[in-house]
Amino acid sequence: MKTIYRWSYILSALIALLSSPAIASDQLPKKAGVDSQQEPSGPGGRLAMPYEEFMIPSDRIGEIERSALTGSVDSAIKLANYYLKIRDRYSLEGIHWLEIAYENGSKEAMYTLGSNLIDFKDKSSQLRGLYWLKRAAKECNEPYRRYAKSMLKCIDHK
């Protein structure tokens, strides 16, 4: 892929990621007693690590998986975020949970699947990413429809 395409894609994906509320932490269950307006900090007032909110204790993974497999969109997205943001951004396990989120009723998962798969190294994943972005451009609600169209436009101009 050409360098210009990669930079325009990266910029488009970053803008979409930063403004993507369905996969952001505000769609995940809130911790009791935590004010969403306060500054992120950990024990002792230190700043929280990036993506710390996507951590899942190992003893809770099975419970969250069962919830996702029985229809919870939030649980599937939580698992996808954990695998793609904490473990490995090229995680097939994360892609699996995004597919489950879509099957459970999240149209936004189409966009997230496409925007993640398009950046994988293998051609088959990239083609599948194009498939999901094209579907998102037609079927998603705003702003995901616009994000998908923007990414497809960047891909067309490579």
Strands, count: 0
CATH class term: Mainly Alpha
The number of domains: 1
Instruction: Report the sheet with the most strands, covering strand number, pairing sense and barrel closure.
Output: none
DSSP helix fraction: 55-70%
Number of continuous helical runs: 7
Low-confidence spans: 1-8, 16-47
| Class from secondary-structure proportions | mainly alpha
Distance between the termini: 8 Å
**How much β-strand is present in the residues?**
under 5%
Which whole number gives the mean pLDDT? 79
Radius of gyration: 16 Å
CATH topology: Serine Threonine Protein Phosphatase 5, Tetratricopeptide repeat
Q: What is the molecular shape?
A: globular
Strand/helix succession = HHHHHHH
Query: From the 3D coordinates, which CATH architecture would you assign?
Result: Alpha Horseshoe
Features:
mainly alpha; 7 helices; single chain; disordered N terminus; Serine Threonine Protein Phosphatase 5, Tetratricopeptide repeat
